[in-house]
TrEMBL record:
This is Purine nucleoside phosphorylase. NCBIfam families: PNPH-PUNA-XAPA (TIGR01697), PRK08202.1 (NF006054). GO terms for cellular component: cytoplasm. CDD domains: PNP-EcPNPII_like. The keyword Glycosyltransferase applies. The keyword Cell inner membrane does not apply. It comes from Flavivirga aquatica. Transmembrane segments: none annotated. It is an enzyme of class 2 (transferase). The purine nucleoside phosphorylases catalyze the phosphorolytic breakdown of the N-glycosidic bond in the beta-(deoxy)ribonucleoside molecules, with the formation of the corresponding free purine bases and pentose-1-phosphate. Pathway: Purine metabolism; purine nucleoside salvage. Pfam families: PNP_UDP_1.
């Protein structure tokens, strides 16, 4: 993997991706964020050596380098998921590339379903902890110790200082920002009523199909990491209605301006 990482990194450096400070991963329906960036360079994933290619229709599939609030950022417009047929090493490969290019902080967004029924769709949740239900680890491969500590500590996977800043920014801007536990499942099917009940019992406040692998690798690489969920639906097993994926995308887009405010204000301070 180290050979592939070096090849990809060299390619992007030659394209002008010059020492970014902050990496950002945009989740489902969260594409407006790009409009806030002074884009200097962009490359489609399918043009980057050794990079996976986004196969989900609402994930754009571009790596973008530019300036946001005076800071150099690298943004994944579209991410990869296990349910697309990728391995966890594929899903997290871009995080390793961003770190190799120079980032020290990783900010992640996603669209998720609210298990905690005190949370409403259209609101945001700051991820304080997570439950990995994807059945594997992105660190479970031969020679992983050449890239970082194999037995990576996960006692505090989400940076407390960044989370504290997020809460202050939300309060100052009258943004509802819950704090909770995110459960990451394999997908792509949505959950049954029984599965929603199980998730609530084990302590999940929201559920999605991403984020946890990237956060694990960010901790493996000693990056400061934080993540925010846009809550796109309410997962009440006693009143469960069929989910329309287009409604989820629309709700993510509607809530995105608040997430953009959080990220932009935070970037001024990290």
């Amino acid at each position: 993997m180290l050979k592939f990482i070096n090849e990809t990194t060299d390619f992007l450096k030659n394209k002008g991706f010059d020492t970014p400070e902050i990496g950002i991963i945009l989740g489902t329906g969260l594409g407006q964020f790009i409009n806030e960036i002074e884009v200097l360079k962009e490359v489609s994933y399918n043009h980057i050596p050794n990079f996976p290619t986004a196969t989900v229709e609402f994930h754009k599939g571009k790596l973008i380098y530019g300036i946001l609030e005076g800071r150099k950022v690298i943004v994944m417009q579209g991410r990869f998921h296990l349910y697309e047929g990728y391995t966890l090493q594929d899903v997290t490969y871009p995080v390793r590339i961003m770190e190799k290019l120079g980032i020290k902080t990783l900010l992640v967004s996603n669209a998720s379903g609210a298990i905690n029924l005190n949370f409403k769709k259209g609101e945001l949740m700051l991820i304080d902890d997570h439950i990995n239900l994807q059945g594997n680890s992105p660190l479970a491969f031969k020679d992983v110790e050449k890239l970082g500590e194999r037995f990576t500590d996960m006692s505090a996977p989400y940076n407390a200082e960044i989370n504290s800043k997020f809460k202050s920014i939300a309060k100052a801007n009258n943004i509802t920002l819950h704090k909770g536990v995110y459960a990451s499942v394999f997908g792509p099917q949505l959950e049954t009523r029984a599965e929603y009940r199980m998730l609530k019992i084990i302590g999940a406040d929201a559920v999605g199909m991403s984020t946890v692998p990237e956060i694990i690798v960010a901790n493996h690489l000693k990056l400061k990491a934080a993540a925010v969920s846009v809550l796109t639906d309410e997962c009440d097993p006693d009143n469960l209605k069929p989910v329309d994926i287009s409604e989820i995308i629309a709700m993510a887009s509607k809530a995105e301006p608040n997430m953009i405010t959080l990220f932009k204000e935070l970037i001024k301070t990290v």
